[in-house]
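User: tokens in, sequence out, please.
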């Protein structure tokens, strides 16, 4: 698969996910209420997935040594997107320090910035003189895993078996202090839990159900982040 096709697929998925979460926030702000749960979900997705994508694109598509005017635009866009994500993350922590109307303006600005940036970036790579890029890792980001691991319960059987440890490991990194996560599976996940416990010694694993047919393991983040 060529660079542009891969990038377009990733951009489409990201924009769909961001837009859906942003609309949830805007729906609440339209009622002049503070969207605590919705904003937390949006900010978490932006930090975990959008910033990951931006970082990978800078490394793979627009490396730092490229200084042509055409390639300086994506770098500036990335800086603005990072700043906007930081503003929304701060708003989620502040829980109502800003007005719903002001928050809605920031969210709409993010959607405009992101849409424009993705269009421009794809146009740069579609140009005849597009920069030579490495695509060996492009498309490796588990963007499609995020919705499957977003909530307090993760269905292990719904995740790709060959990337299970990586997908669940990503979710553990997003756990807050004292937050709990339940892992459910139709088979005993002891091997997975042993592997995760070896890599994440500040997490506790407790079996809540041991089959037959359903295994449920509760994971708790025991230390502060």
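Assistant: Sequence out:
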């Amino acid at each position: 698969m060529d660079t542009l096709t891969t990038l377009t697929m990733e951009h489409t998925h990201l924009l769909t996910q961001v837009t859906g979460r942003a609309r949830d926030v805007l729906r609440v702000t339209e009622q002049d209420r503070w969207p605590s749960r919705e904003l937390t979900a949006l900010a978490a997705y932006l930090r975990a997935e959008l910033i990951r994508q931006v970082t990978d694109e800078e490394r793979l598509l627009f490396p730092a040594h490229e200084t042509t005017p055409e390639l300086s635009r994506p770098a500036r866009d990335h800086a603005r997107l990072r700043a906007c994500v930081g503003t929304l993350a701060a708003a989620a922590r502040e829980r109502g320090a800003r007005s719903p109307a002001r928050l809605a303006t920031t969210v709409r600005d993010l959607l405009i910035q992101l849409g424009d940036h993705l269009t421009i970036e794809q146009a740069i790579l579609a140009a005849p003189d597009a920069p030579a890029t490495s695509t060996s890792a492009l498309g490796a980001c588990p963007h499609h895993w995020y919705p499957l691991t977003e909530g307090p319960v993760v269905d292990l059987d719904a995740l790709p078996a060959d990337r299970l440890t990586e997908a669940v490991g990503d979710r553990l990194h997003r756990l807050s202090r004292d937050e709990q996560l339940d892992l459910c599976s139709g088979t005993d996940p002891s091997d997975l839990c042993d592997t995760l416990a070896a890599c994440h010694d500040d997490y506790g694993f407790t079996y809540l159900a041991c089959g037959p047919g359903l295994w449920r393991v509760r994971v708790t983040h025991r230390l502060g982040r």
